[in-house]
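Page 37, continued from 36.
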């Protein structure tokens, strides 16, 4: 999960460099197509295309439709509500994922897991200080996007029981390339030479972030893995300070401390009381 967070942070830096110049649909399409070729050595190492066969094609399609829809709704809501409110609602994704995992994957909700999620949510709200007073269409759209991300998360966890991590990412890149082909063609423009290094960084980290997350989900329960995703916020704040001279305020420090405390609390419990993942 640490590898996934590092990949997301790196992808954010690359995206910030290139997104003003290229449409997001084009970037997403290039990420999927180039990422598929980057993944090929791992595919051959895992047994080749024959090893990528799956008995659950519909679940792969459903997972990637939900994930792509979540991305679309996130982008749509971005133009309608303040960024702080958007991020706050987006980070309810682990909550939806955890609750769906309890309902559909048979995972157990313990007090310590609930506490880790609560610490993370409180930390997120302290950092972004949303100040949401009433719902508007943008809030509802982002909430639907967060639920979409949660559905995709639970479906990935389920897929790790039967399919390898390489196969999950293999089909993710293929299916999302197909889903995004028409929107990308509609906005396509030829990238300038200086853009290509950033495009390849986005393609690699776009693949590695999901590869590492799927790998983490194959080794631990959803409610253990996903609260760690809250650590993206303080890491993003640090990246902004170091690279873009963005200020880290007291609220960010307090929120980051709560997020770290919740994760350490949950990890310490597992060290003392190891659980067997549901099979």
């Amino acid at each position: 999960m640490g590898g996934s967070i590092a990949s997301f942070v790196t992808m954010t830096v690359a995206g910030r460099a290139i997104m003003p110049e290229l449409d997001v649909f084009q970037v997403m399409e290039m990420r999927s197509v180039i990422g598929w070729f980057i993944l090929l050595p791992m595919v051959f190492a895992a047994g080749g295309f024959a090893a990528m066969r799956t008995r659950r094609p519909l679940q792969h399609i459903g997972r990637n439709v939900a994930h792509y829809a979540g991305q679309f709704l996130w982008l749509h809501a971005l133009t309608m509500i303040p960024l702080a409110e958007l991020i706050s609602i987006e980070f309810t994704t682990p909550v939806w994922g955890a609750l769906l995992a309890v309902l559909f994957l048979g995972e157990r909700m313990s007090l310590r897991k609930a506490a880790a999620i609560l610490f993370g949510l409180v930390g997120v709200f302290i950092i972004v200080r949303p100040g949401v007073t009433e719902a508007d269409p943008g809030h509802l759209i982002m909430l639907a996007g967060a639920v979409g991300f949660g559905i995709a998360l639970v479906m990935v966890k389920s897929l790790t029981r039967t399919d390898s991590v390489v196969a999950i990412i293999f089909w993710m890149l293929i299916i999302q390339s197909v889903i995004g082909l028409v929107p990308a063609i509609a906005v396509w423009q030829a990238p300038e030479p200086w853009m290509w290094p950033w495009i390849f960084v986005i393609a690699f980290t776009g693949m590695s972030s999901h590869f590492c997350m799927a790998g983490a989900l194959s080794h631990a329960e959803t409610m253990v893995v996903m609260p760690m995703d809250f650590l993206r916020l303080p890491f993003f704040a640090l990246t902004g300070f170091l690279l873009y001279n963005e200020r880290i305020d007291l609220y960010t420090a307090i929120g980051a401390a709560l997020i770290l405390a919740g994760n350490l609390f949950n990890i310490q419990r597992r060290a003392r009381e190891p659980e067997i993942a549901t099979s």
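The longest helix spans residues 196-219. Flag for discussion at group meeting. DSSP finds twelve helices and no strands in the chain.
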